[in-house]
Design brief:
Layout (H helix, E strand, L loop, with lengths): L1 H22 L7 H17 L9 E4 L7 E3 L5 E3 L8 E4 L2 H13 L1
Antiparallel strand pairs: 1-4, 2-3
Helix pairs in contact: 1-2
């Protein structure tokens, strides 16, 4: 959702810059900047940026930290409390945030 807003803003900005550069006898805005902006818009449209908010999230069962690192032996280690392989899975970051807020309010 956020990337869609950014793309819409960049397109509106590009249209604004092109419009005023066409109206004036000399370019008001830097043409290299406009080219870079147009290239960035094209890159965003081609790559279809992934929505990371819908990705599954793994947190520590003990401290609810998201700072989980896989070590050399494929163990999941929490860097906050040091627990090993004690994880809780969440469907997405929003479900994790709801869980944390509920635990704080209880």
């Amino acid at each position: 959702m956020e990337s869609k807003k950014v793309t819409e803003y960049l397109i509106a900005l590009s249209n604004h810059l092109h419009y005023y550069n066409v109206l004036s006898p000399f370019p008001v805005f830097d043409t290299e900047y406009i080219k870079d902006l147009d290239n960035k818009i094209r890159e965003i449209k081609e790559n279809k940026l992934k929505d990371y908010d819908s990705e599954p999230v793994v947190a520590c069962k003990h401290c609810n930290s998201l700072h989980i690192v896989v070590d050399d032996i494929d163990n999941n280690v929490c860097f906050r409390c040091g627990s090993v392989n004690d994880l809780r899975d969440f469907k997405n970051i929003y479900e994790y945030n709801d869980y944390v807020q509920k635990r704080r309010n209880d």
